[in-house]
Amino acid sequence: MTEILRWRVGDVRITRVQEWEGVGMRFVLPDATAENLAGVDWIGPFVDESGEAVGSVHSLVVEVDDRRIVVDTCIGNGKERLPARNWHLRQGPFLEDLDAAGFPVDTVDTVVCTHLHTDHVGWNTRLVDDRWVPTFRQARTLVTEAEWDHWRHTELEAMRPTLEDSVQPLFDADLVDLVGVDHEIADGVRFEHTPGHTPGHVSVRINSRGEAGVITGDVFHHPAQIARVDWSNVADSDPEAADLTRRSFLARYADTPTLVIGTHFAGPTAGRLVRDGDTFRLDP
């Protein structure tokens, strides 16, 4: 089992349960070459020994009082995901790791999809008797109306398997709540609209006992984008809007005590944003 990371924001507890970690970020961040990353002097915890960017796919479990909220559900097992070879028909122990971390699936009451890309909804379902059935059977799954409206009308062929095996079965089981982009999930936990990567993309803001945290979603795919905010993600549906969102996110949270938890950040995964001359850095 990979290392379980845990943080506290006031009375709210956040736990990282990782499904996958590895190099290969350039398929979404073409500027993240080892040569370019070497110019970011604080990037060491987020690259491998050869200087290549390391990424992570993980869920973040947010505990508020007796609530158990899973933010994003990773890739999933047994799903056809070519050309993403590391994700195609994978078989891994994610559910066992989630259980070992203290979160059996039937104790989860809410699932949050920051957006509907394949590496954020995979464990929404699992294969049982040749059918994709909901994994978190006791949970309501929250999807923003803007996100669903965008993808249910998509003609992007690459998204069809994801929608068919990881999203539609939840609608069929009446487990989805379509909500606004500023929806309050629980006391002190709410959506923050961060569009650009997808139209209905949200981050998750946490406030408790005077402390603050934010789960980024895919505002950033790698911490290097904090220093090189102009590095665009090829999967951004609206690159201009995504760029504006990154810049406003950095301006809003830099030099504040807010704990920033990266949805795809490997290594320490979380830290504080700090102004660093004309740019920014993440201090783990």
Mind explaining what this structure looks like?
The chain is built from 7 helices and 16 strands. With 284 residues, the chain is of the alpha+beta class. A 7-stranded mixed beta sheet has the order 1-2-3-4-5-8-9. Strands 10-11-12-13-14-15-16 form a 7-stranded mixed beta sheet. A hairpin with a 2-residue loop joins strand 3 and strand 4 (67-71). It is globular, with a radius of gyration of 18 Å. It starts with a strand and ends with a strand.
Radius of gyration based on Cα positions: 18 Å
Q: Tell me about the biggest sheet?
A: 7 strands, mixed
Q: Give the proportion of residues in helices.
A: 10-25%
What would you call the shape? globular
H and E string: EEHEEHEHEEEHHEEEEEHHEEE
The amount of beta strand, in percent, is: 25-35%
Strand sequence of the main sheet, in spatial order?
Answer: 1-2-3-4-5-8-9
pLDDT < 50 stretches:
none
What distance separates the N and C termini? 23 Å
Q: Number of helical runs?
A: 7
Structural class: alpha+beta
Task: Give a concise summary.
The protein is α+β, with helices and mostly antiparallel strands and 284 residues long. The chain has helices at residues 34-37, 94-100, 118-121, 145-151, 160-172, 224-227, 239-253, and strands at 5-9, 12-23, 54-64, 67-71, 110-112, 125-128, 131-134, 140-144, 176-179, 184-186, 189-193, 202-208, 211-215, 259-261, 270-276, 279-283.
